[in-house]
Specification:
By secondary structure, the chain is α/β, with parallel strands linked by helices. It has helices at residues 29-40, 57-70, 82-85, 117-131, 154-167, 183-192, 217-228, 247-253, and strands at 20-24, 44-51, 77-80, 136-138, 173-175. Bound molecules: zinc ion.
Length: 256
Amino acid sequence: MSGVIRNTNSLIEINPINKSAVILCSGGMDSSSLLALLVKHDFDILPITFNYGSKHNDAEFGALLKVCKFLKLRKPARIDISVMFTHFKSSLLQKDIEVPHGHYAEDNMKSTVVPGRNSIMLSIALGMAQSNDMSWIGIANHAGDAYQYPDCQKEYIDYLAGAFDVASEGKVRILSPFVNIDKSQIATIGNNCGLPLEMTWSCYEGNLEKGHCGLCGTCVERHWAMLKAGIKDKTGYQNDPRVNFTKQEKRDLGIE
Ligand SMILES: [Zn+2]
């Protein structure tokens, strides 16, 4: 399992000649903060993103274009895998299944899992890294993702990194510096790197005209993260995300 980098500090241990990375990006706060962090660490970056047919893909992609332009990165490669995902079931994909409102800790959020998503996207990123002679695949999975998304867990990424190490004869490794931190710490990193967080898109409903719904799991987590980090949240929400905070989160933030 050589070469698995597990935390932010280890970024400085990466040999400068190997500072090239394919980064999985969505236009959301986590992967955009990862981009900003790696720019700060002078990485040569190939941003890649996927159209997998989710309701919020287009809104995310618009945000990603803005983020890449702001960070002076090359235009992201957008890979269309939506045909594959028409065979998969998730509330993020099927128009007749509503995206649940509430907190990630709730059971109804399981419907937002997209089966196999990270496995498929990381495998494509491996091919992109090998094709472009890049040493790293960057992914912004974080500790809070583990509530509902098993393929974001550290254990899974570690196994996959071991498999990729074998598949690429040690040439491509996985960089997941946020795996042990939560979204509020990611917000702090993005903000400290100068990224305007309001430029990013989170909402699963993907309604660009109306803005973030404020009630789905990712809207709630986004707002909590910024409040916890002491960052002013400039996102335009249709509804106040605080109604779906847990009691503990309200207590932590001193709003109850
Ligand atoms: Zn939302």
